[in-house]
Design brief:
Helix content is 55%, strand content 17%. The protein is an alpha+beta fold and 285 residues long. It folds into two domains: 87 residues, Orthogonal Bundle (Arc Repressor Mutant, subunit A), CATH 1.10.10; 180 residues, GAF domain (Beta-Lactamase, 2-Layer Sandwich), CATH 3.30.450.40. The longest helix is centred in the N-terminal third of the chain and has 38 residues. This is IclR family transcriptional regulator.
């Protein structure tokens, strides 16, 4: 009798473990789908592509996508049937930005840049081998460029802010990024393919700022600088975009000084946030 009860108890524990493992697996799959949809960018993700990328069955992927849509974490376009990040992701991202700090700390700098130049200022960050635009601050100049919107994602090095981020990485990491993105550069960004992006990295390091002379969108030029953390690694990038007639060499120098000043201001604010005012001023606490 005692043996029978022990066997039953073991079976119950195993059943509970199996359920827990199944639940964890479902969470892992849902998280993977969220990441894949996010990486698809503004164009959205097709069901067929998500099935292929996850190696899951179509019914399983479809069921999980529907659950994520119901939760507001994903959205499905009624016409294209493609999946996009949903409104709750935006809310969660806004809440997370308070913790991670770069976005809210940078807002005043972005406003100053757009007001001083009349052009559009951007904040970008690196995620894996891509750069993501976190914020776009419009200037007052009536002719605006629309090469980059908040949430847009491009391979690292494509665009001024993205190039500033890539050039600020160590050589070994730059090579890893170039290798990882080689296929997508060939397919979707041919003006950056081959040895071009490596040459742009060297040029950016030599001149101290990144320049995009209409390579992403004809007529739209950009200039960018990296924002560095206490360890010297890039934590973000500031950039300004304008039509080509407003990006002559003299104005490039003016914009570069403005960008560097605001990047230094952000770096000081981030250091102060992390270590307190005494350390930010070079004093020990």
């Amino acid at each position: 009798m005692e043996h029978s009860r022990s066997a039953s108890a073991r079976k119950a524990v195993q059943a509970t473990a199996d359920v827990s493992a199944g639940g964890a697996q479902s969470l892992d799959r849902a998280a993977t789908l969220l990441i894949l949809v996010g990486r698809a960018g503004p164009s959205g993700a097709r069901l067929a592509d998500l099935v292929a990328e996850t190696d899951l069955t179509k019914p399983t992927v479809h069921r999980m996508l529907n659950a994520l849509v119901r939760a507001g974490l994903l959205d499905q376009d009624a016409e294209t049937r493609r999946y996009h990040l949903g409104p709750e992701i935006y809310v969660l991202g806004t809440l997370a930005s308070v913790r991670f700090g770069l976005h809210p700390v940078s807002l005043r700098a972005l406003v100053r840049l757009s007001e001083a130049t009349g052009d559009t200022a951007f904040l970008s960050v690196a995620r894996d081998v891509y750069a993501i635009c976190l914020h776009r601050e419009e200037g007052a100049y009536p002719i605006r460029v629309h090469a980059l919107q908040a949430g847009d994602r491009h391979p690292l090095g494509v665009g001024a802010g993205s190039l500033a981020l890539l050039a600020a990485l160590p050589d070994a990491e730059v090579e890893e990024v170039l290798t990882a993105n080689a296929d997508i550069l060939d397919e979707r960004y041919p003006s950056y393919a081959g040895a071009v992006l490596g040459a742009l990295v060297r040029e950016t390091r030599a001149q101290g700022y990144a320049l995009n002379p209409g390579m992403l969108l004809p007529g739209s030029w950009g200039i960018g600088v990296a924002i560095r953390g206490q360890d010297g690694r890039p934590i973000g990038a500031l950039s300004i975009a304008a039509i080509d007639s407003r990006m002559g060499e003299e104005r490039q120098r003016e914009l570069m000084h403005l960008l560097r000043r605001e990047a230094a201001w952000i770096e000081a604010r981030m250091l102060q946030r992390d270590h307190g005012p005494a350390r930010a001023n070079g004093k020990r606490t």
